[in-house]
Structure formats: structure tokens, C-alpha cells
């Protein structure tokens, strides 16, 4: 993709040279290790820079995509046109009494660890979720009986026009693995969680137990997007896939995990195309065998390569 020098100069003026990468390989920024190039990959360091970049994308009529830490995401092999923004440099976490205020780019795992340090209970469930705070709000992340909506009080976001808004948790319509953040095009800048004082020993025991469960059951030795499918009502996705004899099924370098059927792993330099084909194959097989529709939890973004 030929570089748009005009846009490059403007992005550098808004942030700095160290925060703007051209034709950056997105497989370097996703847990699946899949994905083509981003025309511009931008990592702002302040809320104002985030606002200015959105306004610039609007003025220049340039495509704009928000990328979290890439844990619940598949980027197609053709990459993403325009500006891709990552908020990894906005990762501060602070505590104010029983409230924790975490910036969007902080890992939700780190917020749960900070809560333990501050002797606060409520975020133990998040100790194994690999996503960022922004991503956790985006999909109301949850595990082991807890979810973000249980502890979220409010959030600071930027809207499509680049304006700052403070919203309550209720205004996000948080439900099972969904929110209205994508619908409104919000970009999360920070989240405020309200927790309770707890016994650090008891908190640590719960977190250690959940970490053990995760590490013993999940195929963490290979790149993957985490759990691929939402839990269908009355069923478990992994069990349906297992009972369809799909464990070990491989298309190219992508494989249905032998350790946990709800995961698809990048076993041998898979392409996004192979990974997505395997997702569709699993959905089709489970539908034929059990008449159950497996709905994707993972997001798929980007373009197919030009042939």
C-alpha cells in the first residue's frame, strides 16, 4: 500500500514519530499471530491525542479502526486500511478507597492483581482474562461466574465526533458478551470499578484456583483467540464440538485444540483464511449434528488479500 505522506505528517504532528508506524504487520499485535498490515498503526499517549486522531480521520474521510490488545480478535490476511489505533500506552491503574480507575490499555488481569494488592474483592474472575480494560467493556468480558457488568460503575469514552462522554454502566447495555459500544462507535478511555474490602488471603486463594483451572484446561502453549464461541443456551460450545468428533480437526495450520475443544489454535503458521474456514466448518458440523447454532464470540475484522 503506497503511503499517504500528507496523512503521515499530520499524524506525527498530533502525536510523535514514535507513535506512528506505517504498513505495520498486525500479526505482531494479535494473540492469534494472524493478520495483514495496517496502513497506519497509531499508539497515542494522551486522551487529547485520541480525540485529535478521531477528528483527523473524520476530516480526511479516512477509515478508522480501534484495536484492543488483540486477544479476542482475528484480523484478515489483507490487513486494515486507514488508521488503526491501539491504546496500549494508556495503561495507568489507580485506587481511590474501594474504587479502581483503570485506563483502557491496561490489561484486565493487571487490574485484578492490583485489586488483590489493595485488598479489594470483586475482580477475581478477571485474573485469567487476557484482554485490555477497553476490550473487557466492549464485550462485557466474563469468566467463572463473574462479568464486567457486576463491578463497573462508569466509563469515560470518546464518541465518533471526538467528544468526551462519561457514561454509567447502565448506559452501556451490558449483556452476555455484548455492549452497545460498537453500535455507538465509542472508544473507551477509562473505566471505574466499585469493589468491596476483602480478605487478601481469601482473594488470593480464589485467584490461584481460577488460574490453575485456566492453565490446566486451556491450550496456552499455542497462539489462539481464546474461546471462539459464545455459550449456546442449554449447552456448552466445547462439549458440542467434542461430541462432533472435531478435536484435532485441522485446516492448514489452524487446529481445533486437543486440550479444549472450544479453542482453535494457530498450530503451524496458519493464515487468517484457514482459521476462519475452520470456524465455519465447526459451526456447520455442529449445526448438522445437533441443530445448534454456534455464535462467534471472537471478532473478525479487516480485508481479504487482493488476489
Automatic annotation (TrEMBL):
Top-rank taxon? Bacteria
Keyword line: Cell cycle, Cell division, Cell shape, Cell wall biogenesis/degradation, Cytoplasm, FAD, Flavoprotein, NADP, Oxidoreductase, Peptidoglycan synthesis
Which pathway, per its entry?
A: Cell wall biogenesis; peptidoglycan biosynthesis
* Any GO BP annotation: peptidoglycan biosynthetic process
Q: Where is the FAD-binding PCMH-type domain?
A: 34-198
Q: Which reaction does it catalyse?
A: UDP-N-acetyl-alpha-D-muramate + NADP(+) = UDP-N-acetyl-3-O-(1-carboxyvinyl)-alpha-D-glucosamine + NADPH + H(+)
Q: Which Gene3D superfamilies match?
A: 3.30.465.10, UDP-N-acetylenolpyruvoylglucosamine reductase, C-terminal domain, Uridine Diphospho-n-acetylenolpyruvylglucosamine Reductase, domain 2
Q: Which residues form the signal peptide?
A: none
Annotated TM spans = none
Location in the cell reads: Cytoplasm
The protein's matches in Pfam families, at most eight in alphabetical order, are given as:
FAD_binding_4, MurB_C
Predominant place of localization: cytoplasm
* NCBIfam families xref list: murB (TIGR00179), PRK13905.1 (NF010480)
Function recorded in the entry: Cell wall formation.
Entry's family note: Belongs to the MurB family.
Q: What is the name of this protein? A: UDP-N-acetylenolpyruvoylglucosamine reductase
Q: Which gene encodes it?
A: murB
Amino acid at each position: 500500500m503506497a503511503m499517504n505522506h500528507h496523512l503521515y505528517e499530520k499524524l506525527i504532528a498530533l502525536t510523535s514519530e514514535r507513535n506512528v508506524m506505517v504498513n505495520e504487520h498486525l500479526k505482531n499485535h494479535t494473540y492469534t499471530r494472524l493478520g495483514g498490515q495496517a496502513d497506519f498503526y497509531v499508539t497515542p499517549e494522551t486522551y487529547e491525542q485520541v480525540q485529535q486522531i478521531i477528528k483527523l480521520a473524520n476530516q480526511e474521510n479516512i477509515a478508522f479502526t480501534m484495536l484492543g490488545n488483540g486477544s479476542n480478535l482475528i484480523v484478515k490476511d489483507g490487513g486494515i486500511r486507514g488508521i488503526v489505533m491501539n491504546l496500549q500506552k494508556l495503561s495507568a491503574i489507580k485506587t481511590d478507597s474501594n474504587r479502581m480507575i483503570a485506563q483502557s490499555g491496561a490489561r484486565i488481569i493487571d487490574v485484578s492483581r492490583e485489586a488483590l494488592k489493595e485488598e479489594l474483592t470483586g475482580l477475581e474472575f478477571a485474573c485469567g482474562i487476557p484482554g485490555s480494560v477497553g476490550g473487557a467493556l466492549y464485550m462485557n468480558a466474563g469468566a467463572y461466574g463473574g462479568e464486567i457488568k457486576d463491578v463497573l460503575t462508569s466509563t469515560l469514552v470518546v464518541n465518533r465526533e471526538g467528544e468526551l462522554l462519561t457514561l454509567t454502566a447502565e448506559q452501556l447495555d451490558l449483556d452476555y458478551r455484548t455492549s452497545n459500544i460498537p453500535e455507538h462507535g465509542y472508544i473507551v478511555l477509562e473505566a471505574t470499578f466499585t469493589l468491596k474490602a476483602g480478605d487478601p488471603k481469601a482473594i488470593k486463594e480464589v485467584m490461584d484456583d481460577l488460574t490453575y483451572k485456566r492453565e490446566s484446561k486451556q491450550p496456552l502453549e499455542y497462539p489462539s483467540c481464546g474461546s471462539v464461541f459464545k455459550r449456546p443456551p442449554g449447552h456448552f460450545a466445547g462439549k458440542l464440538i467434542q461430541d462432533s468428533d472435531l478435536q484435532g480437526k485441522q485446516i492448514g495450520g489452524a487446529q481445533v485444540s486437543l486440550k479444549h475443544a472450544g479453542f482453535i489454535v494457530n498450530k503451524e503458521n496458519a493464515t487468517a483464511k484457514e482459521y476462519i474456514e475452520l470456524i465455519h466448518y465447526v459451526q456447520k458440523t455442529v449445526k448438522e449434528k445437533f441443530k445448534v447454532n454456534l455464535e462467534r464470540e471472537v471478532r473478525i475484522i479487516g480485508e481479504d488479500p487482493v488476489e
